[in-house]
Design brief:
The protein is mainly α. It has a domain at 119-205. The chain has helices at 11-26, 30-43, 47-59, 63-75, 83-95, 99-111, 119-131, 135-147, 155-166, 172-187, 191-203. Helix 2 packs antiparallel against helix 3 (47-59), helix 8 packs antiparallel against helix 9 (155-166) and helix 9 (155-166) packs across helix 11 (191-203).
């Protein structure tokens, strides 16, 4: 039994793909292990089996699987909710290059969850994640510069990160909100600072977090 739930017409094709992925996963292929686990997690009913495959991939330092394990423990999806395990998996994924995990570690420090509140440490993690193109981290970093929380207030940097985040958010209301924040920052800047900020935005490219 696979714990899979699909329409009758799709079963043969899906089952063949599932069997192929399982064979590769059993052979130790880390991508197949994560893909199989994710397939079962989101499209099946056997969550325990799904988590077991994702954990196998995570144990091989596959960042996407490590992030998934962090999220599972963070929210109690398929495992018992546990902040300590969530943070441990997020840290591993962050070390292995996951921008989303780097932002999640930043969130722990910003909220004082399991660790002491440390706005400066949160900014350090948000910077890594934002440079790795994590949208939520870009917003959090912009807000930190705007408010001067954990870092010296810097409207130019706030302008930069609000603009970058606005340029990739899929939701129109969020985009408008980010543009409004950027414009508020601009109202507190000199023309030369705005020009410098626009230059930074134009030249920005995400980089690897490895």
């Amino acid at each position: 039994m696979t714990g899979l739930s699909v329409s009758g017409a799709d079963i043969p094709e899906v089952q063949r793909a599932l069997d192929a992925a399982r064979a590769q996963a059993n052979a130790g292929n880390v991508i197949a292990q994560f893909s199989l686990g994710s397939f079962l997690y989101y499209g099946g009913t056997d969550t325990a089996q799904a988590i077991a495959w994702i954990r196998k991939a995570a144990d091989q330092r596959y960042a996407a699987a490590e992030l998934h394990m962090g999220q599972a423990y963070d929210f109690g999806f398929g495992v018992a909710q546990n902040d300590r395990d969530a943070l441990a998996w997020y840290r591993r994924a962050a070390d292995d290059g996951s921008a989303a995990a780097q932002r999640a570690v930043g969130d722990f420090y910003r909220k004082g969850r399991l660790v002491s509140v440390d706005a400066s440490e949160a900014v350090r993690w948000y910077t890594r994640a934002a440079d790795g193109d994590d949208l939520r981290a870009q917003y959090e970093l912009g807000q930190s510069y705007f408010d001067g929380t954990g870092v010296t207030r810097d409207y130019e940097s706030a302008y930069v990160w609000f603009t970058i985040a606005a340029g990739q958010t899929p939701l129109e209301d969020n985009r408008k909100g980010l543009i409004e924040l950027r414009n508020i920052a601009a109202a507190r800047m000199q023309p030369v600072e705005i020009a410098a900020a626009r230059h930074r935005v134009a030249g920005w490219k995400p980089r690897s977090n490895r």
